[in-house]
Specification:
The protein has 198 residues and is mainly α. It is built from ten helices and no strands. 16% of the residues are buried.
Length: 198
Amino acid sequence: MQVVTRARSFKRSWVDMAEALVNVRSRDLYREWGFETLHGYALEELNIKRSTVDKLTGSFSAMERHAPHVLEWDGVAQELPTMDAVDYFAKAVHPKPKREGDPVPEPPAEEVVADLKTAIFEDLAGAPALRRRFNDVLRPKSEDDQRRELLGRVRSTADRLESLVTHVEQLDEDRVGEVSRCMEQLRADLDRLAAENP
């Protein structure tokens, strides 16, 4: 029983820490303890960075609102989703602007939220799998963004190819020089295309 208890504690650790931080925040306990902000308290007393505090509290609040039954799971009999997966969910259902001054993005459609909930809380998908499956739906890229991304990928590939070719000892120097010249011309073309359509 002691081992099972410790396993439950281990599996629920992020949820329990998140719940504690949300409780400290909601009751302003950090002020009673001499701190101006929850982040200041967490960093000084718990050695937890601001970004982690935000991830923990945001994830817990999202579960509390959208999947409260999951908070009852012990982590052993019912495996809990990862903090990163729940953080992905929290940011998806409560999107914020990328930069200050940008408009607040529209929340996703109900069907998308339902699919996300299934993927995270039933299928226990991890954050990488969620990004592959949902990023195009949640954060569709404009044609300009897609074009910029493509130009960047081509440039990276050209740089990698040029670097790799110089390491192939069996290629003669003329061929290596030819590849380097071609890659230089390609980079110039890419720069021109990027400048034409910023």
